[in-house]
Design a protein that fits this description.
Number of strands: 37
Bound molecules: 1,4-dihydronicotinamide adenine dinucleotide, magnesium ion
Shape: globular
Helix content: 40-55%
Distance between the termini: 41 Å
Length: 794
Amino acid sequence: MSVSAYFDQMSYGPAPEADTEARNWLKHHHSTFGHFINGAFRPSTWGKTFPAFEPATGKELAMFAAGSAEDVDGAVSAARKAQGAWAKLPGHQRARHLYAIARMIQRHGRLLAVVEAIDNGKPVRETRDIDIPLAARHFYHHAGWAQLQETEFADHTPVGVVGQIIPWNFPLLMLAWKVAPALALGNTVVLKPAEFTSLTALLFAELAAAAGLPPGVLNIVTGEGDTGALLVDHPGIDKIAFTGSTEVGRVIRQKTAGSGKSLTLELGGKSPFIVFDDADIDGAVEGVVDAIWFNQGQVCCAGSRLLVQEGIAPKFLARLRRRMQTLRVGQPLDKCLDMGAIVAPVQLKRIEALVNQGVEEGAEIYQAEIDLPKGGSFYRPTLLWNVQPTSIVATEEIFGPVAVAMTFRTPDEAIQLANHSRYGLAASVWSETIGLALHVAAKLSAGVVWVNATNLFDAAAGFGGKKESGFGREGGREGAYEYLKPKAWANAKPRAEIAVPQLKNTTGDFAAPLVDRTAKLYVGGKQARPDGNYNRPILSPKGKVIGEVGEGNRKDIRNAVAAAQSAASWTGATAHNRAQILYYIAENLAAREEEFAARIAVQTGRSASSAKAEVDMSISRLFTYGAWADKFDGQVHTPPLRGVALALPEAQGVVGVVCPPEAPLLGLVSLVAPLIAMGNRVVTVPSEPHPLSATDFYTVLETSDLPGGVINIVTGSAMELGKALASHNDVDALWAFGSAELSTMAEKASVGNLKRVFTDYGKAWDWMDPAQGEGSLYLRRATDVKNVWIPYGE
Ligand code: NAI
Ligand code: MG
């Protein structure tokens, strides 16, 4: 070609990164790997192995041990043995270990970047500039939390031995997101990488050992889904941290239900990318490139739903198609690439099938007319438009380089369309009007929102989803808490059975006051008769009828949830307003203190002074949350960009609360007050044996300016009503206190919409002790942190 022809075309030649060091490392291991357990490689106990392939060529790359039950057991034992000493190290010593690992990642950055690109098929430009530096950054950041643990998390201890299961889309980075916080805070780890991409986890284990990490602190067991399942089921595991498909996340939620294993799930997404007509169009087009063609679109938070304001849609899509023509797809080691290979043939087929179905359902399709390498799993950058919001390509995670475009007219419509998804991981908003962008950001149901940007990550800013995108956060202070447990509840004992009183024959007992009224349910700010028109008598411990309450059923729960949903303005009320109402409730309760104390005494048979103490503590607790309402606020992170990330604790929405049987008034106040202080609306099932304090309490609410629907009270069976709450898809979270069976049911039945469950596993704690019964332990569970990234500059 002549020089002038080069100038006409301005095309790049290939610029391949050398892979000698990576291939030598593979050769050194004879391309065959065992598990990494207790500081050394060991083969699988049953001799079973499986291969992994190079996505870009389809050639076999290496063989791995398939983890058996015995392998998993060996790894868990090694982790258990190491955990005590690891947790006892001073924070500074653990910080030194994490720092050494961070330095090791940096020193071997090139090797890691090349191995990752070969193994996963992603461009080396991305592994070199994003995956590996961010992995190192996570170890630096968490070295800091180890250093600060004794002061910043003094009231918490490590969870123990953690099982971690990760996907193939960011193999080393997902490892770093999980291993760094776990180790920093005194836990030990058994990690199972994804079967397609085990290499960098094993290389990492080798490097960590060389950096002096004690044996057993980090163990890697390779294998497929069944090995992951063995880890989930292992009784020696205290916590499971999972990233992957929503389908497997659900299975794990169900299998761990009631076990007391702590759980975090980082699952799928269908994140909106919203472009308003006043956006910087060229910036937004580049944004789409990063949102959906980064990592071949195999990104949980990929901006896969492109929502464009109607007026600019034709122009925007035309520019986007033009930009697609200049994308480069090729061999991952070419340094001038936009896209590499899809991780495996099975994923390629899945993408093809979904796109075909979308087209059958009426979508129009444009695919970049560019050269694809021969062999290997490659897919063209693809744009679908004229897509109905109900089409499979608009609702399902495609997990490939496919943008799906729809239009909207008004900001309200954009918000509605954006939130019309069972997922809620991330979102991206493009507008030059800062007021509009932040207004929309606040209304989006997502754990992360990027304003005029996309796919930004930092170890200091938590990452994680809402709704079926899972629960828990990775990174930041909120992520650190996921690897800790409160000391306050550590010694809680299984709750003693509350004896069910038997009805006594009270004929002729003229001293006993007769039942004069039946307490109704409290729904939407009004007293309501139970749907089934049944009542249940409430007995004193001696077996005397002291009152009657409505027998609530599933329909009553549905009505109460609907009332709570329509009280959404409470979530938008100012913190000052919420605080004022909490103080007012406390004041009105104080005015009726004697009456409430007497009621507690007659229900429970406790002494007058103990009953009075419970009322006093309830009044104080209402004040506590009135105090916190305008103080439990967020943080401003300064991630490495020109801009800020606002960490905002947000209400979860509608929360079901099953109150513990003991402490009829204080149990309810301790759970409901932190929730409403943070802007949630609740449907609560009061103490099953002693519900009369709750039905009295709503007469306090009626005089306290609390808007109708913010607190709804349904009396009846804790188990039956709890089940109705757990399986209701418009309930966002469930707090369930009572029997161990109730906890198991709550965690199992909540799997439908993956609601957050806060439960005591049948252990009782002392509500009278403020360390156990109030404060940030509850406020953190009443909220989810949303990180809103706002870059600035002209
Ligand atoms: P997957 O959820 O099956 O795999 C993720 C990890 O879980 C792997 O390590 C796997 O071995 C393990 N696993 C599988 N079954 C398990 C079980 N029963 N118990 C414990 N561990 C188990 O995801 P897969 O099959 O690789 O991809 C399928 C789809 O899932 C993708 O097309 C994508 O839509 C979604 N996905 C989403 C990810 C995300 O980051 N949001 C990551 C990976 C997949
Ligand atoms: Mg799978």
